Recover the amino acids of this structure.
């Protein structure tokens, strides 16, 4: 694709487009064809995994250039994404000060605010004049501060006193003091705040950056919104994959190996398969009923899946509401009442449709014998029971998981469906036995 | 909770915490207890729906103050979220220039780049010196420019010539020209670019803002990353809800009314229920087989659900990969081969577990008669067939939907499960008939 030197004017966007399907050699070749400014942007925009792959395939001289393009938080991510034996090779390319910064960041968990933060932020002193502050920011930008949407006013002990947006700084009269203009009521996060919670805060407030404080109230760095886009994307991907009934992947689809992918999938499938075996056990205790009325068995898939579907729907709804913070654990009773009622209404509608189907089909084809109406009622009542149970179980399961410290998203659609299938068999045959005793049975 | 005037030092975070469960009167009361600077931040951070609700409950005098706090893109969202008769009441509070800006934005679709963009951005001329440019930006910040992470260099015809980050501006020598420092290779989006694609770009490149151009290449505004966090969150929520088998909600869980919620849920449940009726039809053509070997019916739920589970898993995986741009339509053949092979491997594993279960159970309880080994083989082979089919169907369905212009996320877990259930019944009984003819049948 890029054999001739004439195609040297490769654009950043073109390379992004084909990147996922290129081999590492093609990636290197393409990367070197980018104009210098575009190469910078392109490199910074890559995922940590891709940055690491490129860097480890570059000769040591070039390696140093690219390692130094990255801010400390991105470097920490990069180091975390490579094998331990390569980490040293990357860290050794840094100057002492940067290496120290990266080593501090490496001590944080990857998905904490500390692991996301950039220790280089713009600081001012509260007693500076606005003009002095702007001059001081220009100096910091020349040195190494990456992001300058906000300037943070710190005292000598690194305690955060206030914050100014660049806009406020630019708007203020030049001879005013920072302390006159800054906002003192600052929303902050702790070093060990989970990244999902940090994402919440950004999404609710629309910040560009949030300061990270240690336990003693000293400012350690900032988390910027551009990193949060990835966090939000990642957390959603994890939840969606779990909802689909598999373990979350750590890389894009085509970058996960064939057997790596199977490993992420087989676990839950096995658990669910073993769980579903209980349906066979449950049904076997009704073998006599089935033998005397084979027609009963025809509706088993319809009935259990109506419970499974309503349960999947509900659990997914609740999982997302929990992830977005729209719902708290303490709302469980409100949710239970609402979902139980929803389940009844949905169950009545589906049950009536089921009854109608049996009556119409029987009228057309005489398929269900003289007791078709009783059969229809048994099916309708079972659907009502199963849908109500499915909806209620699907709503409570994510809350129970969260309550005991597990990820609510593990209450996946297939998991809830399997749980409800087993109960569905029991509900159906119990209802049918009661209604049809003396007629069909 | 907030009855006494002593509690007047309510913080922004406290109010956020309780906001979802407050009535509108409590919300107003709480909002008025915030210190002025915090109230500003709080208001700007609210969703458009909540902003509209507050504003419409304020007396006209206060209303004007708060309407004018918002930048034009947020105002456009707010106006779009209220009933048409209230839109006028809000627009009339604006000065003429702002009203014109908002009206222009209202002409864009809400989920296009045009609908997300802010028409107020920081501009410089390419022939300005760096010092002049900084001075000019300070002037613009004082007037009305909301976001100043980047300054855009435009010619007289509003064509975009280049971009400078504030950091680059601050880093450059004061006497250099903007044209010397600016980056000319700028990534832009068109007015009608879909917000999901815009979100992709931000997530891939880590931008703080992207310029929006019209067809003639004139710059119309910028989309900023803080709005993108919400976009990414929203799109993920839509996908998750669809994957769970319901229509996407437009508001948080507790803000959707009971019947509004039912409406979003009953549609798919009915479609799936009608689809599942085909399982009853399919099974009825095997009534004779079931009558002569009731034991066959016991494994129906196990077999069809193993297909449904592997199908749900696969479709969810593919839906997310498509949404993240990890996979394109043209990769379909690569995906099909890979998933077919995965399906076979997963099917072999689950099938063997199924066979083992039947052999072990039979040895323990003598439950399945003399032909238990044949029965076990029939079940194992059916599981293999159903899982392979489920995996393949689950992978292709989202791609087919995308190909014909539908949302791939409509290939929800319950939808795929239902599709596979019907085929599962056919596969099972066909396989069983072949293997067991002359023995059990």
């Amino acid at each position: 694709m890029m054999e001739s030197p004439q195609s040297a004017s490769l654009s950043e966007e073109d390379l992004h487009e084909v990147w996922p399907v290129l081999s590492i050699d093609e990636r290197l070749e393409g990367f070197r064809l980018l104009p210098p400014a575009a190469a910078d942007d392109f490199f910074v925009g890559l995922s940590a995994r891709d940055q690491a792959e490129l860097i480890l395939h570059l000769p040591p001289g070039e390696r140093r250039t690219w390692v130094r393009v990255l801010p400390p938080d991105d470097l920490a991510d990069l180091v975390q994404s490579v094998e331990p034996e390569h980490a040293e090779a990357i860290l050794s390319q840094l100057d002492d000060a940067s290496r120290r910064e990266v080593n501090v960041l490496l001590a944080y968990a990857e998905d904490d605010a500390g692991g996301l933060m950039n220790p280089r932020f713009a600081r001012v002193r509260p007693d500076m004049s606005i003009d002095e502050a702007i001059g001081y920011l220009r100096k910091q930008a020349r040195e190494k501060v990456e992001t300058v949407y906000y300037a943070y006013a710190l005292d000598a002990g690194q305690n955060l006193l206030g914050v100014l947006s660049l806009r406020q700084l630019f708007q203020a009269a030049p001879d005013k003091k920072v302390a006159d203009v800054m906002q003192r009521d600052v929303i902050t996060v702790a070093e060990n705040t989970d990244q999902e919670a940090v994402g919440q805060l950004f999404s609710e407030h629309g910040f560009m950056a949030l300061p990270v404080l240690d336990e003693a109230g000293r400012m350690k760095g900032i988390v910027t919104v551009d990193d949060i886009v990835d966090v939000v994307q990642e957390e959603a991907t994890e939840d969606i994959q779990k909802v689909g009934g598999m373990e979350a992947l750590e890389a894009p689809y085509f970058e996960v190996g064939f057997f790596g992918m199977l490993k992420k999938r087989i676990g839950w499938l096995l658990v669910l398969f073993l769980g579903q075996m209980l349906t066979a056990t449950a049904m076997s205790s009704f073998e006599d009923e089935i033998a005397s009325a084979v027609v009963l068995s025809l509706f088993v898939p319809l009935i259990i899946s109506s419970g499974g579907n309503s349960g999947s729907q509900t659990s997914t709804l609740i999982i997302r509401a929990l992830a977005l913070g729209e719902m708290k654990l303490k709302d469980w009773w409100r949710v239970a009442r609402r979902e139980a009622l929803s389940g009844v209404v949905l169950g009545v509608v589906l049950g009536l449709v089921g009854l109608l189907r049996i009556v119409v089909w029987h009228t057309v084809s005489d398929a269900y014998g003289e007791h078709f109406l009783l059969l229809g009622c048994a099916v309708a009542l079972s659907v009502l029971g199963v849908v109500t149970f499915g909806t209620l179980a699907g709503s409570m399961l994510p809350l129970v998981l969260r309550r005991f410290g597990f990820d609510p998203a593990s209450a996946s659609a297939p998991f809830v469906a399997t749980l409800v299938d087993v109960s569905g068999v029991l509900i159906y045959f119990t209802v049918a036995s009661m209604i049809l005793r003396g007629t069909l049975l």
